[in-house]
Automatic annotation (TrEMBL):
Keyword Oxidoreductase: yes
Keyword Phosphoprotein: no
MF-aspect GO terms: oxidoreductase activity
Annotated SUPFAM superfamilies: NAD(P)-binding Rossmann-fold domains (SSF51735)
Family, as annotated: Belongs to the short-chain dehydrogenases/reductases (SDR) family.
Pfam families: adh_short_C2
Organism for this UniProt entry: Peterkaempfera bronchialis
Listed InterPro entries: NAD(P)-bd_dom_sf, SDR, SDR_fam
Protein name: SDR family oxidoreductase
Keywords, alphabetical: Oxidoreductase
C-alpha cells in the first residue's frame, strides 16, 4: 500500500463543478490528482494550475470515459508518470434529455443508461488491476438523489443513476475481500452546475431552497467533502454505502 501523501486519485469530469472541487480538495489532502476532461481543456488546465499553485501535484488528461480504448490510454499515461491509480472518483456526467417519459424515445432513455454504465464499467475495469495488486483502493461514484426521489422530466438521469448505485453495491460485495471499498455520493440539487443553470429557472431554485431544511442548495465543495471522506482512511470500514448530500431535502 502506498503512503497517503503519494496516493494517486483519478477524478473523471474534473474540469468544473463537483469534479473540480473534488480534485482541488484531494490535492490539498496530499494526493496526486488526475484531472480528466473531455471538452474543456482550458478549464482542466486551470484546475491543474490552481492545484500546483497551492503546492499540490496534478495532471490533466483528456479521455471520453465511455470509450474503453480512451480510458486505457489515459491509465497508461498516468502509469507512465505516477504508477497505478489508488482512488477513483467517477463524476463525469454523460448528456441526457429532460422530458416526460411519454415524449421520450428508447434511444433517449436507453442511450443514457448505456452511456452511464459503459463509462462506469470502463473506468472501473481500468483501475482495478493496480488496486487489486496492492490490496487497497477507494472507488467513489457520483449518483443523484433523483435515483430515489423522482422529479418531473428527470427519468433518464434518475433511472441511469439508480442502475449505477446498484452496480456499486455489487462491486462493494465483490471487491471488499480485496481491500477495495466502493461507495456512492448522492447530491441533491447543486448550485453552480451546468444542469442547474440550463434546466431550472430561478423560481424552481427558490422552491428547492424552501424545501431544504438547511436553507440553501449544495455547493460543489459540500459534495467534495463527502467524496474526500470516502477517498481516505476515515471511511476504511464503510463500503456499499450512500451519502446523501442534500441539506435534508430528502431523508432516507
Amino acid at each position: 500500500m502506498t503512503g497517503a501523501t503519494s496516493r494517486v486519485a483519478l477524478v473523471t469530469g474534473a474540469s468544473s463543478g463537483i469534479g473540480a472541487a473534488t480534485a482541488r480538495l484531494l490535492a490539498a489532502r496530499g494526493m496526486r490528482v488526475v484531472v480528466n476532461y473531455l471538452h474543456s481543456a482550458t478549464a482542466a488546465e486551470e484546475v491543474v494550475a490552481d492545484i500546483e499553485a497551492a503546492g499540490g501535484q496534478a495532471m490533466a488528461v483528456r479521455a471520453d470515459v465511455r470509450e474503453a480504448p480512451a480510458v486505457g490510454s489515459m491509465i497508461e499515461q498516468v502509469q507512465a508518470v505516477w504508477g497505478g491509480t489508488d482512488v477513483l472518483v467517477h463524476n463525469a456526467l454523460a448528456p441526457f434529455v429532460v422530458k416526460p417519459f411519454q415524449d421520450m424515445t428508447w434511444e433517449e432513455l436507453g442511450g443514457k443508461l448505456d452511456g452511464e454504465m459503459r463509462a462506469a464499467f470502463a473506468v472501473t475495469k481500468a483501475v482495478l488491476p493496480a488496486m487489486t495488486e496492492q490490496g487497497w483502493g477507494r472507488i467513489v461514484y457520483l449518483g443523484t438523489g433523483l435515483s430515489r426521489q423522482p422529479r418531473e422530466g428527470m427519468i433518464a438521469l434518475g433511472t441511469a443513476k439508480a442502475a449505477l448505485a446498484q452496480f456499486a453495491r455489487y462491486l462493494a460485495q465483490e471487491l471488499g475481500p480485496l481491500g477495495i471499498t466502493v461507495n456512492v455520493v448522492e447530491p441533491g440539487p447543486v448550485d453552480d452546475t451546468r444542469m442547474a443553470a440550463d434546466v431550472f429557472d430561478e423560481e424552481h431554485k427558490r422552491r428547492q431552497v424552501a424545501a431544504t431544511p438547511l436553507g440553501r442548495l449544495a455547493h460543489p465543495g459540500d459534495v467534495a467533502q463527502a467524496v474526500a471522506f470516502y477517498a481516505g482512511e476515515d471511511s476504511a470500514f464503510m463500503t456499499g454505502t450512500t451519502a446523501a448530500v442534500n441539506g435534508g431535502m430528502s431523508m432516507y
